[in-house]
């Protein structure tokens, strides 16, 4: 069983012990003790591994293929898809997020918070400008709020119509 577990982790999932153990909520040294047969692989560990990686339990216990099992359709995701009229991409994004481990979800949330904060800060720093060109060819840049810029543009349109 342990050899099959090592084979699964290294050859099929291509994960280092640290990444594999974090996905099943074990410390790396605890997982290492399982692979080195210092600590027994428990039924709970097997269930957690199978759930985290969609692994066929029979593979770990008896070496019986298939290696991976197809996930059943998630009725919750289907309900969300119908309720919010999600596109296939949106459904995939929601599904992927919900299937992330707790640490990965927190990392994503932190990234998303920083990203939206950056975007918000950049938008608030972008002030509308109206570039005025004088008769003598000099350029003058004057910062205006959106209302002032719209008013000046409307006034220019009126002046052009009167010419």
General description of the model:
With 163 residues, the chain is mainly alpha-helical. 64% of the residues lie in helices and 6% in strands. It has helices at 2-12, 17-23, 28-35, 43-53, 57-62, 75-84, 88-98, 102-125, 146-162; strands at residues 129-133, 139-143. The longest helix has 24 residues, at 102-125.
Secondary structure elements and pairings:
Layout: H1 2-12, H2 17-23, H3 28-35, H4 43-53, H5 57-62, H6 75-84, H7 88-98, H8 102-125, E1 129-133, E2 139-143, H9 146-162
Antiparallel strand pairs: 1-2
Helix pairs in contact: 2-3, 6-7
CATH class designation of the largest domain = Mainly Alpha
Helix-residue proportion:
55-70%
Number of domains: 3
Largest sheet: 2 strands, antiparallel
The CATH topology assignment of the largest domain is 434 Repressor (Amino-terminal Domain)
């Amino acid at each position: 069983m342990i050899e099959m577990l090592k084979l699964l982790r290294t050859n099929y999932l291509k994960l280092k012990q640290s990444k594999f153990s974090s996905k099943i909520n074990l410390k790396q040294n605890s997982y290492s003790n399982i692979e080195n047969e210092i600590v027994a692989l428990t039924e709970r560990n097997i269930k957690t591994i199978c759930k985290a990686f969609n692994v066929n339990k029979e593979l770990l216990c008896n070496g019986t293929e298939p290696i991976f099992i197809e996930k059943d359709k998630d009725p919750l995701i289907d309900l969300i898809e119908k309720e919010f009229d999600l596109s296939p991409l949106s459904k995939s994004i929601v599904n992927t997020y919900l299937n992330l481990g707790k640490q990965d979800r927190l990392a994503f949330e932190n990234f998303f918070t920083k990203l939206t904060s950056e975007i918000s800060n950049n938008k608030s720093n972008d002030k509308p400008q109206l570039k005025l060109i004088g008769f003598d060819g000099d350029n003058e840049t004057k910062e205006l709020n959106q209302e002032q810029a719209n008013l000046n543009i409307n006034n220019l349109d009126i002046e052009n119509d009167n010419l």
